[in-house]
């Protein structure tokens, strides 16, 4: 699925709906939305209590009749109506009015390279419900490659690893297209879960899911590498008694816990390399791997992947924004057309 750059240039708005965050780029205005893909719903009345950051903060703190839902998972919209309501609120009145003034609103949306027709339909319907008369689908990894400044149109191969919240996509790109790619159902969420499980099993400590990030941050810098501190102290709740207590956690053990789900990612990279034509693999030894997506910031992940592949690894600037900024560059006409495939547009 290589979308026509000509069609993309005619789009007014680009949307990247991720399992963790939703981002919107409006032509002429830039990045206008970067918020958690979350909505808090009052189940008695059906009304929305909050969206985005506010809704995410409510997770685990609401009375029974308020549910925090995530309408997107693994690059797929699973609840079209809720996704529309969430997007409408995130855009806000002013922006919606501006967009409504466009007689034929054109929108672009990112989808994983191997998303099935049903998933693509769900993305398209979500945006059609917001008033788009035409929706262009863009490969997430291609958009991200553009966004992090990789020479996508070159005949030299580049490998990009998109570390999202629900999935990790590994792809080799050459001449503006994907040569081989894999989507692995492991991402930041699975890593957070691995840490929570480790604490529960080994320290009988329950941690709210929002507290995993501070733990990772506490370990950042050299944190999750061997040079980091041996132990770190964290606060949680005792599994049995429910009383708050703090424990000293062995960082090497946390590192091990985090690496377990990551073996699937290493396998995925291996599969991509095996399927890749030998000439391109030779290129990759020089060009190396570019990491994008929010989980690329996980301390030590770049080194782990470098050790596993023996290739140089670099994390993109603002890795979580690469996809949306790449689509933005395409909308603004900053990308020179080369691979133009007029078949890849949809209503
Ligand atoms: N500094 C950080 N350290 C570790 N992990 C991080 C950091 N910042 C963000 N993350 C993780 O990155 C993930 C979000 O990344 P991103 O915004 O790329 O996801 P997404 O696009 O919503 O997900 P997907 O593409 O899988 O649908 C979350 O799982 C979050 O925990
Ligand atoms: Mg994403």
From TrEMBL:
Q: Name one GO biological process term.
A: regulation of cell shape
* Protein residues bound to ATP: 165-167, 294-297
A GO molecular function held by the record = ATP binding
Query: Any idea where this protein resides?
Result: Cytoplasm
- Short name of any one Pfam family annotated for the protein: MreB_Mbl
Listed InterPro entries: ATPase_NBD, MreB, MreB_MamK-like
Q: Which residues form a coiled coil?
A: none
Keyword list (alphabetical) reads:
ATP-binding, Cell shape, Cytoplasm, Nucleotide-binding
**What GO CC terms are in its UniProt record?**
cytoplasm
Which HAMAP family does this one have? MreB
The UniProt function text for this chain reads: Forms membrane-associated dynamic filaments that are essential for cell shape determination. Acts by regulating cell wall synthesis and cell elongation, and thus cell shape. A feedback loop between cell geometry and MreB localization may maintain elongated cell shape by targeting cell wall growth to regions of negative cell wall curvature.
The entry assigns this protein to a family as follows: Belongs to the FtsA/MreB family.
What is the protein's quaternary organization? Forms polymers.
Q: What is this protein called?
A: Cell shape-determining protein MreB
The protein's organism comes out as Streptomyces montanisoli
The uppermost taxa in this organism's lineage are: Bacteria, Bacillati, Actinomycetota, Actinomycetes, Kitasatosporales
Q: Which gene encodes it?
A: mreB
